[in-house]
Amino acid sequence: AANGVRLVPFEFSVSDSYMLCFVAGRMYVIKAGSVVANINGSGNNYLAVSSITGAMLPNLCWTQSADTLIIVHPDLEPLKIVRGGTDATWTASTITFDSIPQYAFTLTVTNPAGTITPDRVSGNVRITASSGVFSAASVNQYINASPQGRAKIVSYVSSTVVDCVTEYPFFNTSAIANGSWDYESGYENVWSSSRGWPRTVTFHEGRLFFGGSKSRPSTVWGSKVGIFFDFQATESLDDDAIDATLDTNQLNIIVDMTSSRDLQAFTTGGEFYVPQSGTDPITPATLVFKAVSRNGMRPGTRVQALDTGTLFIQRQGKALNEF
């Protein structure tokens, strides 16, 4: 693994294209058959990328938009490699997300004492409790009410006051009695050092899509349209962040995705795509994956798009298939 090499094509413009050569802890830039020297004026012919280890190289995944290359691996906090104004100007940094999807790996539902009162029935709602039941850790958790109402806490004001966004409207603005509401907690960032990071990535129709992670291997997440690092779903509008899980009768670990005529996902158990009608875009309400075949894909070798379809190596590594 210490001597491994991963080659990643990078096309900056019609006249500037490169082959990025990743080895353990370093990235070399090759242009027109030669290694670019003096990267960032350092005197070195490589860019230090210490977070990429030799063991990660076989399963790195990447996608590019304009001057930015995004690199992912389930054990690597997602990186962005940015080409500057010259062949020898490159930077590498971890991605700072505007928001990360939430998931309750351990869900807890409690019935705190006292009443709660929403100041509105829907939209941005401030909820006031009759006793101190909230804390700073309440952000991104949920309040459920009977006969109806579900709200996500987005801001902690005090132990008795929180600001929320409703997922289902409240029945009215009257006080909700003790026992008629509950507090749903346990939600946390779905990607982290402890939970793992996305396994694959692609751009598609103005969104950045991540596929699979160590703790959620069969889930796909899409950013808000045009806001590539914001993955927090809010009001389920057409341009809102989205996620979907490949729920079938077998484990489907997502190992690659590609943007072609459709968004395609390749897993260890089968091949999937997101059907779209005509020019209709993917939205939170329409995102659904359909299975096409059950060959499964071998991890580590990226899919290749051709005019006729998409080529991938079958799970056992003994056949080349076309999707």
Gyration radius, rounded: 23 Å
Helix content: under 10%
- What share of residues are in beta strands? 35-45%
Number of strands: 27
Question: What characterizes the major β-sheet?
Answer: 7 strands, antiparallel
Mean pLDDT score: 92
Keywords:
single chain; 323 residues; mainly beta; seven-stranded antiparallel β-sheet
Write up what this structure looks like:
0% of the residues lie in helices and 44% in strands. It has 323 residues and is mainly beta. The strands form six sheets. The chain has a seven-stranded antiparallel beta sheet with strand order 10-16-13-14-15-12-11, with no helix packed on it. Strands 1, 2, 3, 4 and 5 form a five-stranded antiparallel beta sheet that branches. The protein is globular and about 70 Å long. The model has no long low-confidence stretch (mean pLDDT 92).
Describe the structure concisely for a colleague.
By secondary structure, the chain is mainly β. The protein has strands at 6-11, 17-23, 26-31, 34-35, 47-48, 61-65, 68-73, 76-83, 90-94, 102-110, 116-118, 124-129, 142-145, 150-156, 161-168, 181-189, 198-204, 207-213, 219-222, 242-245, 254-259, 263-267, 271-273, 290-293, 304-305, 310-313, 320-322. 0% of the residues lie in helices and 44% in strands.
Draw up the topology in text.
Layout: E1 6-11, E2 17-23, E3 26-31, E4 34-35, E5 47-48, E6 61-65, E7 68-73, E8 76-83, E9 90-94, E10 102-110, E11 116-118, E12 124-129, E13 142-145, E14 150-156, E15 161-168, E16 181-189, E17 198-204, E18 207-213, E19 219-222, E20 242-245, E21 254-259, E22 263-267, E23 271-273, E24 290-293, E25 304-305, E26 310-313, E27 320-322
Antiparallel strand pairs: 1-2, 2-3, 3-4, 3-5, 6-7, 7-8, 8-9, 10-16, 11-12, 12-15, 13-14, 13-16, 14-15, 17-18, 18-19, 19-20, 21-22, 22-23, 23-24, 25-26, 26-27
